[in-house]
Known about the structure:
The protein has helices spanning 5-28, 31-43, 46-56, 65-82, 85-88, 92-115, 118-121, 126-159, 167-192.
Amino acid sequence: MMKxxxxxxxxxxxxxxxxxxxxxxxxxxxxxxxxxxxxxxxxLLVPYVIVFLTxxxxxxxxxxxxxxxxxxxxxxxxxGELKNYxxxxxxxxxxxxxxxxxxxVLIALKISDNIITKxxxxxxxxxxxxxxxxxxxFSFSITFGTLWEIFEFLxxxxxxxxxxxxxxxxxxxxxxxxxxxxxITAIVMYFKINT
Length: 195
């Protein structure tokens, strides 16, 4: 499952940072940050689970999926929440949503490429095919961004985490950044995809 040496090294480093952070938070009795450290430790496993499940279904993700996902999780949970980058760097949250909007479109395109066979592609024109898969990718990206905002809301509601720091303004800004980056990526890929 952990074939890529670079991703495994990144994984181990980030896991060790999460473990050290959790231990420090126990010593300082900082329970909110302790739970974010635990969330980091667990969430870093998610990209490997996704790759394992998609590989079993013969769906191939982008080559650097694991590395990008690990770095993104680290930037969001460790740097963003535990090191307070969301407060220190005002554009940190928008940057992460912008990057995720781009990458989720690329992931969706890779997934659709595995699902839609060449025989099915030949039934429709190249232009219609490109519009179809880009519409799917864009919608997939918006869905991901929306689910993330719901995750933040539920975390705040049930665990008092304070992930939605700016209330409605924060949520709307995050979704707008995600949608804009997803739309720009879909438009760029429309001209880049050769069918």
